[in-house]
Amino acid sequence: MLQGPVIILTSFAYLGLLFAIAFYADKRADAGRPVIANAYVYSLSLAVYATAWTFYGSVGRAASDGVGFLPIYIGPTLMIALWWLVMRKILRISKQNRITSLADFVASRYGKSALIGGLVTVIAVIGILPYISLQLKAISSSYSILVQYPQITMPAAAAGTSIASDTAFWIALILAAFTIAFGTRHLDAAEHHQGMVAAIAFESLVKLLAFLAVGVFVTFGLYHGFGDLFARAAAEPKLAAMLTPLEGVAGGYASWVWLTILSMMAIMFLPRQFQVTVIENLDERHLNKAIWLFPLYMLAINVFVLPIAFGGLLHFPDGAVDADTFVLTLPMAEKQEALALLVFIGGLSAATGMVIVETIALSTMVCNDLVMPVLLRLRALRLNERADLTGLLLGIRRGAIVLILLLGYLYFKLAGEAYALVSIGLISFAAVAQFAPVVLGGIFWKGATRRGAAAGLVAGFAVWFYTLLLPALARSGWLPAGILEHGPWGIGLLRPLELFGLAGLDQITHAMIWSMLANIGAYVGVSLLASPGAEEARQASVFVDVFRQNPDTRGARFWRGTASVPDLYNMLARFLGAAGADASFRDHAAIKGRQWPRDALEADAELVHHVEVQLAGAIGAASARIMIASVVKEEALSIEEVREILDEASQVVVYSHRLEQKSRELEAATAELRQANERLTELDRLKDDFVSTITHELRTPLTSIRAFTQILLENPQVELEQRRKFLGIITKETERLTRLINQVLDLSKIESGKAEWHESAVDMREVVADTVTGMSQVFEEREIKVDTSVPERLKPVKADVDRMIQVMLNLLSNAAKFCEPGRGRIEIAVSEHGGGLRIDVRDNGPGIDPDDQKVIFDKFRQVGDTLTAKPHGSGLGLHISRQIVEHFGGRMWVESAPGQGACFSFTLPT
Amino acid sequence: MKILIADDEPHIVTALEFLLVASGYEVDVARNGDEALAQIRSGRPDLVLLDVMMPARSGYDVCQEVRATPELARTKIVMLSAKGGQGDMGRGMAAGADLYITKPFSNRELLDRIRQLLAS
């Protein structure tokens, strides 16, 4: 079954299927219902990172380095964790500025410089050529092997064959045609290729499936699971060595570190990765899912690498079969024809995915950032007169695609045999890593200048070329091999593989160290030499501050000049067509609340900016800049003016922050005031209550006094006995009144802090004795028994002796009041308690209700027997007593149960 | 004519009792709101001298209760209070008192007003 025509037919059928998918997706995109607008398709499209290198080469690497194949996949997984910080910013910037490619991004950042754009494009193209050739090699080799089934022979070296009979050549042409059909059917203002994205998402699935299929076959079909496989591998001494991570990689630690770093750079800066991650992204939120879906994919596709490698080594022990081909040759050896065909398609899938996306991305860069700026400058006058440039743009891109693929083939012919697949790929990784400083620096450091970026790029690229590309060419015989041995012109220090004597590292690590040193050194050094120009400063702010800006007014501020609306419209139409220009002007009018073309639009800074951004979406920022400049008479803003605008803006921000702060403080103060007001209202109410109660308490005795006085005055006939009684009442009530007034005054003085306190060392024993003596008459009248238990020696307390007497009198008179006459008993006890004194006054009266106990110390609260007509006091006594005790640092409380008397206690510190 | 004195202040009760008896009225005494209500219901005095600030039940409550009882409609109620605010007087009248007198009062005036009320 596995014969040439069958394989070729299957391949074309598969490519046809891909095309159909892309076509359908494009149709849906045009209808406004994109198929690819979900996070899963987005994440799958990112898996274009796994190319034929992953498919074939990782097994090859694992077979020689064991676990050492892993860093290339650990890198992206690590990098994705950082994406939240870096990639989100890049995404936002790119969306806002309608960035069309990696070169466009860098060019735009450094002042919309065509020079930078061109540099990046050149580096990208040259750097990716080895990678493309790798894919071509993979397809042609796998075809050669498969077509010789059932024999398993390695393909002959390609160098000897003529071009016309070289399968790789035809593959390159077919791929070119395919890519043109995929990516250049029309010009999209935002450089979206939705059909392409759908197709490569599908391809990611196919290659994963194929790899898993062969993995399962080897692990569970040929052997009995992971355990069995690894046990057998451990039994072979050569293989056992590969199971240890550090042994497996040449150069140990350093290699692992640099390889991981390299692949972290690659996942960001490979043109195809930038294309699918940033340019083709439809929704920033898709990034969130991708952050864990993509590592999952990486894991899935790497799970079976080591098992297949070991399986192959065990199966083909004599090294006649190239480890890169194990995924294919193992099924072939076991006569699994269908599986082998599936694997071939899987590899084809991986390779074509890479080629299509990479080439489209590169061709866009070549067109927008290399060719167009040159054309516009050279034949500026003529181009302005041409009504429709879309044809020209498409033509340039198609030409670029063919050229890039042919160059890829050329590299394959010249230098492809020198290395295994993996090493070829790493050379490309190292090339795109040169973009890392200018991009990462560009989005975080406003001080980076265009010259600095150019210097960094040139230096890094030069070192890369010298340490990686040159040796590849030398090894393939296109340069004298002596260069590697003795350095150019015999200068040993300049040996490409051991620059300045740095030996003992593998080639990639060595190249990375020197190129990064040169790149970053030149970038930072030259940037620091001079300040950024007006345009650069403007763009730097746009990029670095992207999260802090209002997108509507961002770029427009920096423009001053005159333009006419018809000119702008015509120019836009030249690149986007009349329909595109109409749509764009309509959008702009809508933002301003008007209708186009009914209402007139002003040719103000905002319109010009809008048109420029739209244009940049089609032809890149640098070219757009040139076109706008030709149409609009612009006054260049000096760097001072730009700084002024920026300063103003930052001042406004600071001012508004201060305003915000002030208003918050104001709110807090208002809340405080409201609280204080509430408290005052409450106090006011309490005061009113107090006044009302006092009034009542004062008026009551006054009523008796007045009434009886009048009675006596008007009734002279009243008997002596009664007269005496009434006069007695008058006297008592007068006393009561006086007492009340005194207490109120006393309380008022205590509470306002104006009372006079005469502190001295008070002997409570004396106080108790004095008060008992003072009350003796009352006790006699009521026949109350009084017991005192006071220790002989008492520590003196710091208090006011008069006040203490006042308190004791209060407690004792209360106790006396509530004792039943004849059966009353009062106990006074003084004891030492917790560093102070404790005094208890216990009576055997009726006791106090628990509810009353809670309020008994409050002002004007009296509890008493309402059924017997006993006169009560003012209600202030206990309150004042407690205030006094608390003033001297003590506590007062009551313990009682109804029917069991009451015990009032207080403590005083000594 | 029977008059009920409802007040918890004993001295005031004594004074009022003397005055009323000297004027020829029959006098009953209640010391708190509940007692007052009970004696109004059972004794059916013609007039009640009702203190406002009493324990158990305030004068207002007693007044409202009496007014809510149709059989007691003829009972005259004179509120006595040491509270003299406008609001208090209004509250008293709203509760259904016929008269609101603040303490301290003039003996003469009190007796005159009582006589007027009982005559109508």
Low-confidence stretches of chain B: none
CATH homologous superfamily of the largest domain in chain A - what is it? Sodium/glucose cotransporter
Supply the helix-strand structural class of chain B: alpha/beta
Largest interface: A-B, 28 and 28 residues
Strand content of chain A: 5-15%
Assembly type of the chains comes to heterodimer
Gyration radius of chain B, to the nearest Å?
13 Å
CATH architecture of the largest domain in chain A: Up-down Bundle
Question: How are the strands of the largest sheet of chain A arranged?
Answer: 4-6-7-9-8
Distance between the termini of chain A: 111 Å
Total number of beta strands of chain B: 5
Tally of alpha and pi helices of chain B: 5
Structure description:
The complex is a heterodimer of chains A (910) and B (120). Chain A is mainly alpha-helical. Chain A is 68% helix and 5% strand. Chain A has four domains: 4-107 and 135-445, Up-down Bundle (Sodium/glucose cotransporter), CATH 1.20.1730; 554-637, no CATH class; 640-751, Orthogonal Bundle (Helix Hairpins); 757-909, Heat Shock Protein 90 (2-Layer Sandwich), CATH 3.30.565.10. A five-stranded mixed β-sheet of chain A has the order 4-6-7-9-8. Chain A is elongated and about 155 Å long. Chain B is α/β, with parallel strands linked by helices and 120 residues long. The two termini of chain B are 13 Å apart. The mean pLDDT of chain B is 89.
List keywords for this structure.
heterodimer; A: 910 residues; mainly alpha; Helix Hairpins; five-stranded mixed beta sheet; two-stranded antiparallel sheet; 35 helices; 5% strand; B: 120 residues; alpha/beta; five-stranded parallel beta sheet; 5 helices; 21% strand; globular
